[in-house]
Write a structure and sequence with these properties.
Elements lengths: L1 H6 L6 H24 L3 H14 L4 H13 L3 H14 L4 H29 L25
Helix pairs in contact: 2-3, 2-4, 3-4, 4-5, 5-6
């Protein structure tokens, strides 16, 4: 990576620069795969982002980034990335499976969070007052019966 980055400062033709960019992208792609195997998730995300700067339609990297975000529980970030990958390659069964699993997990997570929120706030009654508790004038109550 150092050699590729430092050689970018030399005078090159457009074709040479493109070849260098392709090589850099391949190296970063391979690096992200290795970092993923080592569970270095922050590094994987950094490598994937560098690749996506030059190749926003790189399906392999989109899939890796979505997978890492999912492993970190960042479902709302991972889902759009995996959908973008699936849009580029509709028939990819791995992306379909990962996205399907992720959407189910995200739905379950949201319903659990909602249940916890309701539990923390208490079960609000079905009948809520329509005026503030300290409205000026005579107290009319909440308007609820029973």
């Amino acid at each position: 990576m150092k050699a590729i980055t430092s050689s970018a400062k030399l005078d090159m033709t457009f074709e040479e620069e493109e070849q260098l960019l392709q090589l850099k992208t391949k190296c970063l792609n391979d690096l992200a795969a290795l970092q993923l195997k080592l569970d270095h998730y922050r590094s994987v995300l950094r490598s994937c982002s560098l690749v996506l700067e030059h190749q926003p339609d790189n399906i392999k990297v989109l899939f890796q980034k979505g997978k890492v975000l999912a492993q970190q529980g960042e479902y709302s970030e991972a889902i759009p990335i995996l959908r973008a990958a699936l849009k580029l390659e509709h028939s990819n069964k791995m992306i379909h499976a990962q996205l399907s699993k992720l959407v189910k997990k995200h739905t379950a997570q949201r319903s659990t969070e909602k249940a916890l929120d309701q539990k923390m706030l208490g079960n609000p009654s079905r009948c809520q007052p329509s005026v503030p508790a300290r409205a000026p004038g005579p107290s009319l109550g909440s308007g609820c019966s029973g």
